[in-house]
Amino acid sequence: MDGTDSLIAKVFPRIGDIDASAWDRCANSEAATFDPFVSHAFLQALEQSGCTGERAGWLPQHIVLEREAGGVAAVMPLYVKTHSQGEYIFDHAWADAYTRAGGNYYPKLQCAVPFTPVPGRRLLVSPDANLDECEGTLLAAAQSVAQTLEASSLHITFLSEGEWTRAGALGLLQRTGQQFHWPNRGYRSFDDFLATLASRKRKMVRKERAEAASDGLTIERVSGGEITEGHWDAMHAFYIDTGSRKWGRPYLNRRFFSQLGAAVADRCLLVFANRNGQPIAGALHLIGGECLYGRYWGSTEYQPCLHFELCYYQAMDFAIERGLARVEAGAQGEHKLTRGYVPVTTYSAHWFQDQRLGAAVDRFLREERRGVAESNEMLSEFAPYKKLAAQETD
Asked: What is the reported pTM?
């Protein structure tokens, strides 16, 4: 993009009002790095199903940068939030402290994929546009929206490391977090992966897979046009069961699963454990250009190690078969470490209208970043891969 081509920022309260091809050109211009979560179809499925919107406390305020000469240069998924639910980067302590000091923390602005702790690009710039100019203009536009709406702050969560670095240079506060991802190091089979593990861990994985498939259960994968409404009925029931048992109100309704299937079925992978042809547990994964993303899981009866099989080992199998570079299995999970997942750093960026609140958060983040770095370094030492034990045998 010519540097003299002026950019005009516009705010849209519905992603359906934004041209899908223009959005996706900014979000997913290359098939090799396709991210289903920032696609127009995925975000629209959330809106059309009512999972996001004013009643849900996720009011869309998406920003589009249009060239004065015509065409879209960049977009930003943005929401007005009246709570801090469904974000997975926790700021409840900040909200509580600011409220006790007499401020109003809500509403705030959130640039994120709702209910989805998946790292990726958030400032979505077209490949033919000037990256630095567009990112700076998007951030300035979002801050302007915050001021207009009297929002306390702007939060950009699970953004890429490059965006995080550039946002920091523009004055946003920098936060880090931790997840566990499985790297596919060019394995030709699951046995190839097992061969890289220390003997004790290798035996543990084999035992867990055997236990999960015992008691007459069969494992089934369903994707693309094979997925029926019956499959979505089962997956939604599993999702509701898990959400209700863990933390209360689930975020996604039944309609969303149908909307997701209609929009991006070719990106969906369902893995079921069946007993006598009927699913008793299931996991939903989304297929990216270079990554398999594990999202939701649930079961109607207990079977030892079934969670590990459907959410981790089947995902690793699939990634090896498809030549995908990694598996991301969501938030939390030091228990993933012993199963081959390794600690990685996640990133978020924050801006506050009240400079006093910003200064207090900045002091906290400096210490938190140090702690995250130390934790990642320490946990990496406990990864199950062979080190000096290279001569171990089964």
From this structure: 0.94
95 HSE (CA, 13 A, CB side): 16
Distance separating alpha carbons of residues 28 and 31, to the nearest angstrom = 7
Half-sphere exposure of 147 (CA within 13 A, CB side): 7
Task: Give the model confidence (pLDDT) of 195-211 as tens digits.
Answer: 999 999 999 999 999 99
Retrieve residue 274's tokens. Answer: 């069946």
CB 241 within 8 A of CB 219: no
At 158, is the secondary structure helix, strand, or coil?
coil
> What are the backbone dihedrals phi and psi of residue 198, each rounded to the nearest 5 degrees, phi first?
-60, 150
Q: Please give the helix or strand (H or E) that residue 262 lies within, else none.
A: helix 254-264
User: Is the pLDDT assigned to residue 390 strictly greater than 60?
Assistant: no
Burial of 127 (0-12, 13-18, 19+ CB in 10 A): exposed
Q: Return phi, psi of residue 173, to 5°.
A: -75, 145
**Element spanning 261, H or E:** helix 254-264
d(CA 91, CA 153): 11
Report the distance separating Cα 61 and Cα 325, nearest Å.
33
Residue located via tokens 């079934």: 306
